[in-house]
Every structure is written in C-alpha cells, then in structure tokens.
Amino acid sequence: MSGDYMSRAAQAFLDQPAAEDLGPLSPETIDAYRKMAKDEFLPRAERAVKAHGVTVAEVEIAGVPCLEILPKGEPIGTVLYCYGGGYVTGSAREDLIVSAGLCHRSGARIVAVDYRLAPEHPYPAAVDDGAAVYDVLSRDAAPFAIAGESAGGNMALHLMQRAQANGLPMPVAAVLLSPWCDLTHGGDSLQANDGRDPTLDLAFVEAAAQMYAADTPRDTPGISPLFGPFTPDFPPTLVTTGTRDLLMSPSIELTRRMRDAGIAVELDVHDGLWHVFEFYDELPEAAASLSRCGAHLSRHMGG
C-alpha cells in the first residue's frame, strides 16, 4: 500500500509492471544496464530541456567533458552538478532530467561533469575528474554551488571534503538527492526497503560498489564520504530522500553527522517515495522537490 500523502501519479508508478530483468549487475551485463538506462532516461532528458527552456552545450573543463546548461536569463552563478548511476551507469546527458530543472528553478549556470565510469575506470577516476572541474569552477566562478544525486551526491560530498583538505574555496550551497554516501551499506533501509524501492535494490548497489571500489576498502572516506570529516565550513545543505528509498538510512545519518558538526542542513523525507524520485517528471512530488532545491541554491547564491 502507498502512503496516505502520495499523488495518484506516484501510486500509478508503483503499480506498473517491473522493469525487464537483466540479471545480476556485472562487468558482463554492464552494457545492457547502460542501454536500459539510456532508453529510459534520454527521452525524459530531452523533455526536460524543452520544458524548462534551457540551453545545453558540450564543453571541456580541465580536460574533462562536461555539459553546460544555461537558463533563459543572466545566470546568478554556477553550480557544479554530479550525476548518479552507481558510478557504473548514467551520464550528464541522462541527468538533464534533474540538472535542467535545477538550472531553470535556480537561475544558475549548471556545469555537469561527465566523469569516467567503473569497472573500466574504478576509484578514484570518477572523483579525480570531478575534482579537476571543481578546482577550476571554485576559483573562477562566483558564486559557486554544488549538487548531485545518488552517486553524484557521493561525489559532491567527497569533492567538498577534498577541497577543504586542499584549501580550495567551498561552495556557498549544496543539494544532495538520495546521496549514496556509505558504500559499506549500513543502516536499516538497505534491508527494509530492498524490494520496496521500485528503482533500486541492494544487489545492484553491492555489485556497483564492488566494481567502483575494486581493491580499496569501502569505508575509505574517498569512497564513503559519510566517514570523512565534516566541519562548520561546509555550506548550507539540502538533502532529499523518501520512505521507500533504499538509501534513506544513510541520508538520515549523513544529516545527523552534519548537524553534529555545526553545519546548516535540512532533510526532506517524502512519504512513500523512492530513490531519486525527482527523475520522474510525471510526479508532482518531483516538481515540488526540484523547486525547493532550486530555491535553496538561488537563496544562498544571492538570486
């Protein structure tokens, strides 16, 4: 049964047949998973670009391919955006579903880093790509903020911890959608919501974590930033999740640790919703959440 506060569109999503079973995620099946994601999300991404009236261009920053997404008016600043997909699937273009919405709703220029994927490029390839772009934007773009969903939320957290360690400027704001911040997969929701989350299961994230981490222990802060340092220098942060989200528990624990460190952090837990539900533009809850995320970025960037 759904929660009492879900939209009819959300209930309809839960009632639809399960997606095609591609078998266990592995290096042998990864191409099939990537194709399935592209087939599902690229049409939604194209729809989002048209709906929000943003302009998208391919650019290269510090030798890393990126998408630059511009709003209709003069941008109020720049947001570094990190896409999700377990560090094994996805792309900046597929994530236009979220990044185009954040661009329109915040009024900011979005730079979405198209980082390398595992298993071809295990840790730290992806975060090294993100760090190279962060280094440029944090010095040259002001005001500067950061956002990411799922594995992209992991990357956003890692990049802030890395920047602090290296004395780079910190963002003025952060948005983290269902962040995959603990690759050791602690917390009740990893078991309680396995099978309840319609878009993500424990077998997938376990396999993805193995391919991404390779021989590096998964509790290494660079891989699981939940275990890294948090200080009051971190920017005001908005975290979103849902009660069906496989990663709800880590999102809650992340919020607790940030608050304990003196960081201004807000947690939005959406009743009955799942991992990065903001990807599904048919949901009124997705539009509402992205509007709140965009307002958070805009407010702290001076828009």
Overall morphology:
globular
> In order across it, which strands form the biggest sheet?
1-2-4-3-5-6-7-8
What share of residues is helical? Answer: 25-40%
Task: Write down the secondary-structure element order.
Answer: HHEEEHEHEHEHHEHEH
Radius of gyration: 17 Å
Low-confidence stretches: none
Percent in strands: 15-25%
Decide which structural class fits the backbone: alpha/beta
Describe the sheet with the most strands.
Answer: 8 strands, mixed
Q: How far is it from the N-terminal to the C-terminal residue, by CA?
A: 41 Å
The total beta strand count reads 8
If helices are DSSP runs of H or I spanning 4 or more residues, what is the number of helices? 9
Average pLDDT taken over every residue: 96
What is the secondary structure topology, with strand pairs?
Blueprint: H1 8-15, H2 30-52, E1 55-61, E2 64-70, E3 78-82, H3 96-106, E4 109-113, H4 125-140, E5 144-149, H5 151-166, E6 174-177, H6 189-192, H7 202-213, E7 237-242, H8 248-260, E8 265-270, H9 284-301
Parallel strand pairs: 3-4, 3-5, 5-6, 6-7, 7-8
Antiparallel strand pairs: 1-2, 2-4
Helix pairs in contact: 2-3, 3-9, 4-5
